[in-house]
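Lecture notes, unit on protein representations.

Consider one protein chain, 106 amino acids long.
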Amino acid sequence: MSNILITGGAGFIPSSLADVLSKNKNYNIVFVDNFLTGNKRKITKAPNVKFIKCDVNNYKDISPIMTSYRFDYVFHYAAVVGVKRTLANPVMVLDDIQGIKNILDL
């Protein structure tokens, strides 16, 4: 049994990935999202999938999840997306860098 984390799981690409991976019952999938750009309707519903609301840019949010599940694989998709949103909120892009650092450190 493999434990898989998908960050930004309520986004288009990560939710599609979760849909495909959830078909393999040998995978326990946890996906996290803070719904900044994700959509609750995209949350995959399957017995081997768990959703946790979390901001990967906040170390205190993601740390207990990473240490509890001891993931075998991590797909990191959490980010501010869209050119307009990025240009309007450049500091948020710097927060995304902190999110990448948190995932790599943990």
